Amino acid sequence: MAANVQNQPGRTDWADDEQPDLATAIPPPQITRNKDGTETIVTVFINEDGKRVKRTQRIRRTVVKKRENPRVAERRQWAKIGPEAGKPAGPRPDTTTLGENIIFRPQVGFKSGQKEEKAPEEDKKADQLKKMQIKCRICSGDHFTTKCPFKDTMAPEGEAAGAPAEVDSGPGGDAGGLGVGGGAYVPVHLRKGASGATGDRMGGKFERDDLATLRVTNVSEFAEESDLREIFERHGRVTRVFLAKDRETGRAKGFAFVSYADRIDASRACERVDGYGFGHLILKVEFAKKAT
Amino acid sequence: MRPILLSGHERALTQVKFSKEGDLIFSVSKDHIPSAWYSANGERFGAYKGHQGALWTVDVDPTTTLLATGGADNTMRLWEVKTGRELKKWEFPTSIRRCEFSEDGRQLLGVTEKRTGQLSNVVVYDINPDPDAEQTDEESLRIVVEELPRVTVAGFSSLGRYIITGHDNGSVAQWDAKTGELLNEVYSHEDGMSVTDLQWSADRTYFITASKDKTAKLHDTQTLEVLKTYVADTPLNSAAICPSPTEYVILGGGQAAMDVTTTSARQGKFEARFYHKIFEEEIGRVRGHFGPLNYVAVSPDGKCYCSGGEDGYVRVHHFDPPYFDFKYEVEKEKQRELGF
Predict the structure, then answer these.
(1) Is residue B103 helix, strand or coil?
(2) Cα–Cα dist B172/B164, whole Å
(3) For chains A and B, what is the number of CB pairs under 8 angstroms?
(4) Where would I find the WD repeats (chain B) (predicted)?
(5) What would the CATH number be for the domain defined by B4-337?
(6) Please, which of A80, A138, A170, B73 could form a disulfide with A84 given CB 3.0 to 4.6 Å?
(7) How far is CA B57 from CA B34, B62, B147, in A?
(8) Do the Cβ atoms of B112 and B121 come closer than 8 Å?
């Protein structure tokens, strides 16, 4: 109340004083016409930081004539209704936004992107299947042993000869070598194909392929696996991303492993991502050393 | 092209319609408020408040003065587009699944849903195009669909001669629009797969139906003969015919809304698919929605299309030049022959 009393009528607070100060007054924009048909507009204004800014714009005016249906033109002038009533013309950010640019070109024989992406993988699989030679253990023909026409009449080739003929019969194949003909169970590590030494490393032949695995260090502790995946996927197909995390805090410990499907991709990624700045730290990337 | 996202609705879109000049878009969704938008910049013109239930359908008359909406509050309402005034409310025992104006805007058709004790009806009202005039309560025609399964979609043919209905079992029927007599019926879609949409060509001499059986079919209005079939890999919710100068159709669909949470956006196939109308071949897709597309509509001038999705967005796309330039080799040859 006291402030109100002090203010004399007709005179507002000094802060509201609107007398133009000649030093800070803003001159009106100057427009000059140039010879080449353009215009130069010099505007002086005060920007967001409260500083005086002079802006010089050169513009060219072109008149574009467009025919419009008078009905459409009339409808454009309609006053807005309902929740939009009284709002100014132009799209409102709460109801209208612009999406990301979409490139759409019709093409003959269109295949959806999904199929295209899938295709190379399938090709690889098919290739692998092609490379894998199927050899019958009974007649050495190129079909599966179970499909052999001589299945019932002949014993498997290797067993008949008494010596294992194939090299690539995996575990779960026949139990040749030991226990020929007998139905007795043979432990996996004693079967043919397994290395003789007992107490072999766990995982055995299913050991991860470390050849295409990168060790990434100096990772920001706020990093997520998805971030890393995003960075590394640019250089090839990533099969696995492992980010070591602290069990209690859930934050990254600062190192990660990234495996690629292809070693060439891995070496390229190693070259390119090493020294890459990520989350205010510089990544160090090297090939993972074999665990000892 | 940069799509314009219209996010005025709070729930899944059910139908979107362009005005005849293509400048306004009308959208209805399962929230209770129909909206109108300027297609050029996506600005919302306004909304029409009054309905008290989910809305299934909207249509605008050829002069863009009257707007008809119908929904699950068992009413069909008529609005003045310009002012948002409610002009008329028709009440029914069940919800309104589809409404459509005839070509001249003098008749309005509504489809009521079949529910226990109630049959599907197609009702037709004569409309006075003057917004200040009193609208009639008396229907000029009522087709009680007794022997056929539930009607899902319906529309007026060219010159208001026939009423075409699409049914729950995938059949399409033709009725006389004056007498209500059943003239013809064809089983064009797979049995038990409902017809989800029916949209007309510019002159209404043929139409396209979309169905849950993953196909869309082009029918002749007169004979109901299937002219073309477009095969997609997902259940379709909508299909639209692009007017000249392009010869395309747009299909929209996706996995049913209730299965969506179990699939990623990619697998859900939430894309607008473009097919060549004559060669029945897919020529492209436009991605963007996070849910199935419930409706696609093409502007009558062919320069833009919009889709309403289960995700609550309407996406408006203005086509780029490559869209108009695309031609098949045979088309190009033909043009050269004719000396263009």
Answers:
(1) coil
(2) 7
(3) 124
(4) 6-37, 48-89
(5) 2.130.10.10
(6) A80
(7) 9, 17, 25
(8) yes
Residue B168 and residue B113 in contact, taking contact as beta carbons nearer than 8 Å: no
Distance between CA atoms of B236 and B179, rounded to whole angstroms?
32
Which of A83, A90, A113 is facing B43, going by the closest CB pair?
Answer: A90
CA dihedral B240, B242, B248, B252 (to 10 degrees): -30
- Return mean pLDDT, chain A: 74
Residue count of chain B = 340
Reduced to 3 states (helix: H, G, I; strand: E, B; else coil), residue A212 is helix
Low-confidence residues of chain B: pLDDT under 70: 257-268, 340
Whole-number Å distance between alpha carbons of B320 and B311: 25
The two most distant CA atoms of chain A are separated, in Å, by 122
* Token pair of B219 as six digits: 């029918």
Could you tell me if A261 and A236 are in contact, meaning their C-beta atoms sit under 8 angstroms apart?
yes
CA dihedral sign of residues A122, A125, A130, A131 = positive
Alpha helix (H) ranges present in A101-220?
Answer: 113-131, 157-161
Minimum distance, in Å, between the CA of residue B159 and any CA atom of chain A: 24
Which stretches within chain B are classed as H helix?
321-325, 329-337
Can you tell me the distance from the alpha carbon of A164 to that of B155, in angstroms, rounded to the nearest whole number?
A: 77
pLDDT value of residue A225? 87
Dihedral sign (CA A89, A91, A93, A95)? positive
B21 and A114 in contact by Cβ < 8 A? no
Contact status, residue B30 vs residue B70, Cβ threshold 8 Å = no
Q: Which residue has the tokens 């797969």?
A: B193
What are B304's two structure tokens? 């833009």
Most A CBs within 10 Å, among B24, B248, B283, B318, to test the A interface: B283
In SS3 terms, B274-317 reads as EEECCCCCEEEEECCCCCCEEEEEECCCCCEEEEEECCCCEEEE
* Cα angle A101-A106-A109, degrees, rounded to a multiple of 5: 135
Q: Are B37 and B25 in contact (CB under 8 A)?
A: yes
SS3 content of chain B, % helix, strand, coil (to 5): 5, 45, 45
Amino acid type, A193:
G
Give the long-range contacts of residues A188-196, CB within 8 A, separation 24 or more. A192/A164, A193/A167, A193/A169
Give pLDDT < 50 ranges for chain A: 1-5, 7, 114-120, 159-179, 196-200, 203-206
Query: Do the Cβ atoms of B326 and B44 come closer than 8 Å?
Result: no
User: What is the distance between the alpha carbons of residues A204 and B137, in angstroms, rounded to a whole number?
Assistant: 83
| Cα gap B89→B71, rounded to integer Å | 12
Minimal CA separation from B200 to chain A, in Å? 23
Name the nearest CA neighbour of B230 among B279, B182, B292. Answer: B279
**Closest chain B residue to A72 measured between Cα atoms?**
B23
Which tokens in the block code for residue A173?
């194949």
Estimate the crossing angle of helix A225-233 against helix A263-273, to 10 degrees.
Answer: 110
Cβ(B14)–Cβ(B98) below 8 Å? no
Q: Where are the domains of chain B?
A: 4-337
C-alpha closest to that of B167 among B227, B212, B220? B212
Please tell me the predicted confidence (pLDDT) of residue B71: 94
> What local confidence, expressed as pLDDT, does residue A137 receive?
74
